[in-house]
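User: New here, any thoughts?
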Amino acid sequence: MQQDRDKIQELKDRLEALKRALDFDGKKKRIGELEKESSQPGFWEDREKAAELMKEMGSTESEVREIDSLDRKLDNTETLKNTEALKRIETVIRSLELKIYLGDEYDQNEAILAIHAGQGGTEAMDWAQMLERMYIKYCDRKGWKYKIADQIVGEEAGIKSTTMTIDGSYAYGYLKGEAGVHRLVRQSPFNADKLRQTSFALVEVLPQIQQATEVEIKDDDLEWEFFRASTQGGQNVQKVSSAVRLRHKPSGIIVTSQTQRYQEQNRKIALGLLKSRLWALEQEKIRRQREKLKGEYKVASWGNQIRSYVLHPYKMVKDLRTGVESKEPDKILAGELDNFIEAEIKMV
């Protein structure tokens, strides 16, 4: 019993430290401000701004409720008698503590995640699709919503590339460390001799940029193209030109969105993708200038391998930055990425 009491006191101390670090009182004050603002006449006249404020209020309320719930549970004498309940409380506190490390400007934003198959034909495209499934399952585990904005499928199997938007609080902060090259070693399922094959895929992660003031885009700099979206192998071509290809003339950046049913939905997604890519372009310039002085500049490109997934001749997933390993690659590929992602977040 004393051991449980000591554990509860430890958890209470951690929770109080967490409140200070996350500015718990400030968050409660912010909820009041948002409630007052949302009740003003004309609040919904600017629907985009209003939607963002309501999203902020929902996210902040959720975090405050979670901390309040932990407080009540730790004050409940019945908790003393339930070791499993203490374990569950500690798991939630550990998850919240991780947010202390996510203090960069865009860490709270939603994310854009893109995967590109490397050289290796069908084998590499299959690996890219395996990674897509892994991140989708991770999103499901986190309770995040996602949409496939654009996808180029392989001729025989897999995907050449895919771009998805991920909607969830701190999605960018959690996922940004996944950017880089992912390497797979296995017996090829596409070779009759089942030879050992090494495949590569590149993962990009960007924050969703919501405010127009963060990235200036002039209408005259945009070139829109509309076409009919199609599914794998060019089948089932839509009768309406709902797919969107958007080119930013000054930078040459081209983005595509074709998976939504209506053109306006694809236009909105394409513009969001462009904002994020322009932001990334500017950040890359800043990082290059800063890191050039230190000789440490790296981008998420070929050669910058971050993690290996070995399925043959032994089973192992190893992160080459943090040293975190797992001998259960099937679980990792099923979205159980928490240990890898948490270690990367704490390392920065």
User: Anything to note?
Assistant: Residues 121 and 154 are 9 Å apart (CA to CA). Confidence is low (pLDDT under 50) at residues 231-237. The chain has two domains: 2-101, 106-348. The radius of gyration is 23 Å.
